[in-house]
Design a protein that fits this description.
The chain has one domain (4-233): 3-Layer(aba) Sandwich (Glycerol-3-phosphate (1)-acyltransferase), CATH 3.40.1130. Helix content is 38%, strand content 18%. The protein has helices at residues 4-8, 12-20, 22-29, 39-46, 61-67, 81-92, 106-118, 140-148, 203-221; strands at residues 33-37, 53-55, 74-77, 96-99, 123-125, 152-159, 162-164, 172-174, 179-184, 231-233. The strands form two sheets. Strands 4-3-5-2-6-9-1-10 form an eight-stranded mixed sheet, sandwiched between helices. The protein has a two-stranded antiparallel ribbon with strand order 7-8. The longest helix is centred in the C-terminal third of the chain and has 19 residues, at 203-221. The radius of gyration is 17 Å and the shape is globular. The N and C termini lie far apart (34 Å). 43% of the residues are buried.
Length: 235
C-alpha cells in the first residue's frame, strides 16, 4: 500500500487537499435536513451481537459519510490511489478503515472486518465498489456477516435536490439545503453454518433489498410517499 498510494499522497497539493477535504462536506452537510426511516430495525438487529454491517451502493457514500460521522464505523476502502485519499478524509470524519476489495486484498479485508466486528465495531461495505456495475453485490459482505455473526443492514439514500455525477455509480451529491432521506431495511442474517464457505447465495437477496430501500428513499425525497415515523437527526 505504501508504493503507488504513498507516492500519490506525497505531493504538497495532495496533502493539503486531504487535510481539508472533509471541511466542504461538513459545511454543506450542516445545511441539509436529514430524516432517518427504519432506525428501529437497526436497534433490533444491534441487540445481538451489539454491532451491525451496513451495506449501500457506492454512489451514496458522500451523504452517509456526513450522516454517520464520528461513530467509529469501520469502512472497507479499496487499496487504490483514490482509496488512499478516501481513507484519510474519512478518518478526519471519525471513521476507521479496513483496506482491500473483492479484486485486491480481498482475503485480508474480510479477515480485518471480521476482527473489527468481533471487537464490537459497526462495519460498512459498498458491495458494488470499486468498479460496479451499480447495485451489484459481491460476496464479501455475506462472508463477513457469516463469519462474524453480524447482521447486514441495507441502506438507501436519496435527496430532493442533488447533483448526480456522470460516473458508473451515479455518485450522489445533495445540494445545499436539500432534504436527505436515509432508509434502513430489515436485517439479513446468513446461516452461521456457512461461515467458513464461499457462498454467494445471499447476494441476490442483498441486491433486492438494496434496490428496495433505494426506491423507498427516492419515493420520500420526491414526495411520492410519506413515512409513518421519520426520525429527525440534527446535522
Amino acid at each position: 500500500m505504501r508504493g503507488i498510494a504513498g507516492r500519490f499522497v506525497a505531493g504538497p497539493l495532495t496533502r493539503a487537499a486531504i487535510s481539508i477535504g472533509h471541511l466542504p462536506l461538513l459545511a454543506v452537510g450542516r445545511t441539509w435536513t436529514i430524516r432517518h426511516v427504519g432506525r428501529e430495525r437497526v436497534d433490533r438487529a444491534r441487540r445481538s451481537p451489539g454491532c451491525v454491517l451496513y451495506v449501500f451502493t457506492h454512489g451514496v457514500l458522500l451523504p452517509l459519510a456526513f450522516t454517520h460521522r464520528r461513530r467509529d464505523v469501520q469502512v472497507l476502502i479499496s487499496e487504490s490511489r483514490d482509496g488512499e485519499v478516501i481513507a484519510r478524509i474519512t478518518q478526519a470524519l471519525g471513521f476507521g478503515s479496513v483496506r482491500g476489495s473483492s479484486s485486491r486484498g480481498g482475503g485480508r479485508a474480510i479477515g480485518g472486518l471480521t476482527r473489527r466486528a468481533r471487537q464490537g465495531y459497526d462495519l460498512a461495505i459498498t458491495p458494488d465498489g470499486p468498479r460496479g456495475p451499480r447495485g451489484s453485490v459481491s460476496p464479501g459482505a455475506w462472508l463477513v456477516a457469516g463469519r462474524s455473526g453480524v447482521p447486514i443492514i441495507p441502506v438507501g439514500v436519496a435527496a430532493d435536490r442533488a447533483w448526480r455525477l456522470r460516473s458508473w455509480d451515479r455518485f450522489l451529491v445533495p445540494k445545499p439545503g436539500a432534504w436527505v432521506w436515509v432508509v434502513y431495511g430489515e436485517a439479513v442474517r446468513p446461516d452461521p453454518a456457512h461461515k467458513g464457505e464461499d457462498h454467494t447465495d445471499g447476494c441476490p437477496r442483498i441486491e433486492t433489498d438494496l434496490a428496495r430501500v433505494e426506491e423507498e428513499a427516492d419515493a420520500y425525497a420526491n414526495g411520492r410517499a410519506r413515512p409513518l415515523r421519520p426520525l429527525r437527526v440534527a446535522a
